[in-house]
Task: structure prediction
Amino acid sequence: MQRPTHLHQPQTGGGSPAYETVFVARQPVFEKDLSTWGYALLYRHTGEADTAVFSDDFDATLRVVANAPLCPDTCAPDKRVIIRFPERSILGSVAHALPPETTVVLAQALESPAPGYLEALTALKRDGYLLALDGTWSDAVPPRSSLDRQMALADILCLDLAGQTPKELADLVRTAERWPGRLLARRVEDQAGLDICRDLGFSLFQGFFFKKPQTLATRKISALEESRFRLLGLLEREEPEYAGLTQAIEADVSLTYRLLAYLNSASFGFGQRVSSIRQAVLLAGWKPIRAWLRLLLMTDMLPAERTRELAYLSAQRARFLELAAPMAHPPANPEALFLLGLFSLLEPIFNMPMEHLVGHLPLAPEVGAALCGEDTPFSAWLALVQATENSDWDAVRSLTKSLGLTPRDAAQAYQDSLNWADCFFGLLASTPGATQV
Result:
């Protein structure tokens, strides 16, 4: 899942403060078993139309590095973060501003680098940083050349799948066997591409394959799934009947246990122990309880074989759209947009056609139609989510304008949604008996 964030740094000078804006998208990198190995940070070096344009990639890199600790999970001890450093940044030791335990320095493999480039890469390795190299290689790389020595230093060799045939990929992999680094496949867009890369010997995978269904089948909804959808229906009633809702929740022992465990955690700060769903509603109010139940039900329904990033991304999309809705001109409906984001990945979660799934959900017709790919007033919001995740900044600019949002507001809403989703899933992982993400 690509997780975009908004970074800004004040620029000194006369008059009111100005802000140069860096848009950063965070995309997960997976192991072969689809566990999350780490994240790659992708960024652009221009902000809004009324902000300064960075002079070069070096300037943009400085701002990303300066703000990287503000990005959710960027400094998590169990996750690596890949950040691209142009040649000038490598020579200037910019990467040393970040912790070597979590930072992967992505550098360009250069045939004719500037003096000191190879030595700078060697120093980074010596200081504990993982080194990833991006570029092209072939059998023609002369032994003991500068390029050969760079490749030999690399812990990870990155290969972009765009435009490559399976035979071309196989030839590149065969050539790469002369160097010790792991192979990372970028732009893995579907299950077929993932399977090819696994068979060829790649061990790290970056791309949007996990957001696409493996195979679509019109199967019967299971009894457990049916009960979850029925409960979601009860949650979305405008005037919920609390007695019936409480009875439905408490009939599910696992769900009740986890919900009460969350509500009794330090994050909620209730002055007394919560021992029933009815008491929780009275203490916390219906809206926050409903929001938590929605998310719990979504994480519950995710099949074990699908990556947990799907659950994270569903929640984060929902929160982003909910936060962005009142910032639009005219304002949009936060509740409807929350549900649009939350259910936007049901197809890859269940490997079933969206048209079949929306029939089980209590959605406004225009929301359901947008989820099924039809053109409705909600379609542009879904397109905005996808464009930001894909780092398609030109589309983001166009869509924010059409929705009456500023790019700055949209990016800040994304940052806040990341923090919120990280908080939720951090609590989910720390609660005894909870589903791990």
Observations:
- The longest helix spans residues 407-430.
- Residues 223-430 form a domain with the Hypothetical protein af1432 fold (CATH 1.10.3210.10).
- The chain has two domains: 5-211, 223-430.
